[in-house]
Amino acid sequence: MLTKRIIPCFDVEGGRVVKGISFVELRDAGDPVELASIYEEQGADELVFLDITASSDDRQTVYDMVAQVADQVFIPFTVGGGVRSADDVRLLLELGADKVSLNTAAIDDPKVISACAERFGSQNIVVAIDAKGKPDGTWEVYTHGGRRPVGLDAVEWAKRIVEIGAGELLLTSMDADGHQTGYDLPLTRAVSEAVPVPVIASGGCGEPSHMVDAIIEGKADAVLAASIFHFGTYSIRATKQELAAAGIPVRL
Amino acid sequence: MAAKRVLVLDYGGGNLRSVARAVEHVGFQPEVTADPRALDSADAAIMPGVGAAADTMRHLRESGLVEPLRKYIQAGRPFLGVCMGMQALLSVSEEGGEHACLDIVPGRVRRLERESADGDLKVPHMGWNSVKQIRPHPVFADIPDESYFYFVHSYYPELEDESLVVGRTEYGVPFASVIARNGLVATQFHPEKSGQVGLQLYRNFLTACCG
Fold it and tell me: In this predicted structure, what is the pLDDT of residue B50?
């Protein structure tokens, strides 16, 4: 049976993991390879690296990191952040990323998604959607870490980008993100039911039961979390055991 | 003893780097090449693959690999096909119309259906799914039955000769996730992305032919 995926997410700046990892004795808490290997061993199903390097002309650091991770990690990983063009995507895939996530570039020019899907296959193309609730119960797409609304309905945008080639969606609730009080279940469910491709729920996870809710009520195919793993509140294995106890198929 | 020649076929598609690293990791020296003549003296050949069937076949033709590969595999020499590298072995793929493939393994590559008895399924089939070992095979050495492997695909192989199936997976339909015959092994999943069990599969395949 296909299992639900548990995906730790790392923020990366200048090729280094930032926003500290504190659950284990590390030789180097910023080393992406060491961290990725630890999570692989703990049973992570995939990894996501989000490049938050402010300067867009400093891409080489992320390229170097991708090559290092690809050489030593044998589970799939996605790279996002600052990906502007089909050539950026090609380079990241060649260096060994399994999937590449686009966000702002897709909003600026949706044709970049269809171009990437045609060249590399939909299965390698993830589109990240950052959404915030509106008073009428719908959700609007935002960029720039939730600061800039772009005037698109999140569910309609999701449908459109899947039609033109997105193979997976990384859906972040900007309302829930950082609060650790649970994923935005209505948003997750609305998007997951609207599209035929897998949806990764993101934003708001504070404990494993939130993942159970995102999967059962939110119909998510995968759940992403950062701080609950990085601060050692829960190990990936313990998290998966809780999900299994709730009847969710996981790889243990 | 001379180093064994383990080819990773570079025909313009596929995650070569991950496959080459997996080969290295289990103690062999990968040789990434698109040269059909390299097959003559190869001890093993691995064909990775992502992308669409039509593109894969076009790249194989342009690289001049079609006939050499047919001869190599039909001679029973060690070959591992991964994902599209498995699907390309069949007769015909329905991906993006009807495309003739290598026709080494009789059968069709068909699209996964979204509708299933358990409700709508997401396509692509993406993530970790279990592989039921239908019959014993050296490639499964030290890999527990029903182990999880990483899949990413929207099409699946439907074989005419079920006796080739050594591993089976369910996603709406049961399909052949591992096939084997003589020197040929092929997997629908990506062993190079399947953690320790995936590396063990590479180790098993390479030890059997190059050990």
Answer: 64
- CA atoms lying within 13 Å on the CB side of residue A148: 8
CA geometry: angle B128, B132, B135, nearest 5 deg: 145
Strands B44-47 and B79-82: parallel
DSSP string, B97-160: S-EE---SEEEEEEEPPS--TTS---SSEEEEEEEEESS--GGGTT--TTEEEEEEESEEEEES
Residue B1 lies in a domain: no
For residue B126, being part of any structural domain is answered with: yes
| Whether pLDDT at A147 is above 90 | no
Q: Which residues of A touch B25 (CB under 8 A)?
A: 74
Tell me which residues of chain A have a C-beta less than 8 Å from any C-beta of chain B.
Answer: 1-5, 40, 45, 67, 70-72, 74-76, 93-96, 98, 120-124, 167-168, 196-198, 221-222, 251
CB contact under 8 A, B124 and A2: no
Using DSSP's 3-state secondary structure scheme, residue B182 falls into: coil
Q: Residue A247 burial (CB < 10 Å; 0-12/13-18/19+)?
A: exposed
Active-site residue, B146 included: no
Is B209 a residue of the active site? no
With CB atoms and an 8 Å threshold, state whether A168 touches B22. no
Measured between beta carbons, the chain A residues lying within 8 angstroms of B195 are 40, 74-75
Domain that holds residue B187: 6-210
Chain A partners within 8 Å of B128 (Cβ): 2-3, 5, 45, 251
- Structural domains counted in chain B: 1
Q: What is the ipTM of this complex?
A: 0.94
Tens of pLDDT, residue by residue over B74-122, are 999 999 999 999 999 999 999 888 999 999 999 999 999 988 877 789 9
In a domain, B25, yes or no: yes
Q: Is the pLDDT of residue B181 over 90?
A: yes
Residue B202 lies in a domain: yes
Question: What is the widest separation between alpha-carbon atoms in chain A?
Answer: 49
pLDDT value at residue B65? 94
**CATH assignment of the domain containing B51:** 3.40.50.880
For residue A103, the model assigns a pLDDT of 94
To the nearest whole number, what is the mean pLDDT of chain A?
A: 92
